[in-house]
Each structure stands twice: as C-alpha cells, then as structure tokens.
Amino acid sequence: MNLHLHLSIFFVILFISLPSSYSCTPNEINALLQIKKSFNNPRVLSSWNPQTDCCTTWSGVTCNNGHVTDLFIPPSKLSGQIPDQIGDLLDLRVLSFNYLPHLTGNIPRTITKLKNLDSLILRHNNLSGQIPEYISELKNLTFLNLSHNNFTGPIPGSLSQMPMLQNIILEHNQLTGSVPNSFGSFVGKVPNLSLSNNKLSGKIPESLSKNDFNGVDLSKNSFTGDGSMFFGRNKTSITIFLSRNMFEFDLSKVKFAESILDLDLSHNRIFGNLPRELTGLSLRRFNVSYNRLCGKIPRGGLLQTFKSYEFSHNRCLCGPPLKKAC
Questions:
Q1: Where do the domains of the chain lie, and which CATH numbers do they carry?
Q2: What is the mean pLDDT of residues 308-321?
Q3: Which of 106, 168, 186, 268 could form a disulfide with 129 if both were Cys (CB 3.0 to 4.6 A apart)?
C-alpha cells in the first residue's frame, strides 16, 4: 500500500516537473494557415508547417497554454491585405505587422472579435482608407500604433471611448480635419498622443485644455490658433512638440510644468518673451526658432547650452546663445 502511494506521488511529481508543451487549437491552426494562404504562402512564413507544432516552431507565433497570444510578422516583401481570419485568433493579445510595404487595404472588421487584444501595431506598411471607427470596440487595447501608412480622412472620435488606451500613435499618414472634440474627455487615462506629419488643420478644441497629456506631438501639420492649452504649471507633461504649424499665442503668459524635458515650438507664429521659468526646467531638447519672439533670452539653467539656431529667426530675441546683444 505504501509502495503504491509512493509510486503515485512519484509519477505526479514527474508529471508536474515535465515541461509543458501545447500546440494551437485546430481552429487557430486553420486560421493561421488561412492567413498564410491569403498572403500567397510567403517565404517569411515558411516555418508555418501544419506537420509541426505551431506554438514552438512557427516564426512570429507565441502561445500561452495552447492559445496564440502574439502574432508578429517580421519585415518582408509579403503582399496582400490583412485577412478576415485574423479575428479567429480569439486569445490574441499582441498583433504586430511592421515594415511590410506591400501590405495594403484596411483593417478588417473581424478584428473586433479580438476582445483580449492589448497592442495593435501596424506601422510602416501601405494600409489606406479611413481609420475605422470600430477599432474603439477593442476595449482592452492599451497601445495603438498605425503610423507610417496612408490612412486618410478624420481621426475617429470614438478612440476617446477606449477605457484602457494609453498610447495613440497615428503619425506619418494623410489624415485630415482637426483633433476630435471628444479627445477632451477620454473615458480612461489621458493617453500619449502622436499625430505628427499628417494633413491636420484648424483649431485645437478648447475641451483639450483640461487634459494632462504625458506627451503630445502635433508637429508638421497645419494647426492654427492657441496651442498654449497643452501647458500648465500643475500638469505633468514630459514632451510637447508643436513645431511646423501656425499656432499663435503669447509665450510670456504660458506656465510650464516642471516635468517638461522636450519642448519644440519652432516654425509657428508664437510671440511675446521667453519666460524666466524656462531656466528651471531640465530640458533635453528645446527649439523656439522661426517664431515672432522678442526680448532677452533668460540667463541660467540650460537655455544657454542650446545652439543659437534653436533661437534663430525670431522678431527680436537677443542675448546668448545668440550673437545679437541686447
């Protein structure tokens, strides 16, 4: 009796100690093979062999307890559109297609079936059309990066209804219109916002003034009006890039958060003086060139460590690091 008990315990321990090996479910295997087929069986997916374990030998596929949780297709000449079968990987948490210049079309609606999706990264591809409103149905998404594509049309206002979203990266597209008014009231934490290098224009909605963005990048668009709403002594912003727009406000009246490390306001229509409180910031990057600023550059802090060109082409700025004396 004791011998049987000891043997039972031995085999239980042996079973527990064995490395667990799972393969995808039949539905997931079929979905992955359909995805491969839709891309015309590219060489980059040659390891996707139905005779092998998809969780351990298929490149770009990561599993947890036998379910596909991460799908990453590395840079290649793969061509086609994102197939509907992507929505059949129901446990997917990370979807990452990057540097695929022949990946075209839009994001299929079946992506809304991915209720566990945490990160959607589709950058440096050739996707086009409008960014679909139904992306907002991905309620667990924290990271959205659709940068470096050819998306057109407006920014979906429904993105503000995503409770977990922490990063919105839509830079380097062909987006038009302005920032949605709904971005003044995110249902979750105010996300980092990167909209640079688009065709956006118009005034920033006043509703955004109450937001405390950790980082905001609106550079290289055609925004107008008052951009000072992103500043405030009690805010915690680290990065504020507003360069190459047509913002027009009095910089001398702006209150800066001590947290700011990177500040680029160049190539706008900003006027007034440089506030002395700039000398109290631990700036890593600073540029106010090509504006309408006047007055003496405050001495102290890090301002004099920046290059003269980062203050150049203003109406009447003077003092170091500029050669023009006051």
A1: 59-318 (3.80.10.10)
A2: 96
A3: 106
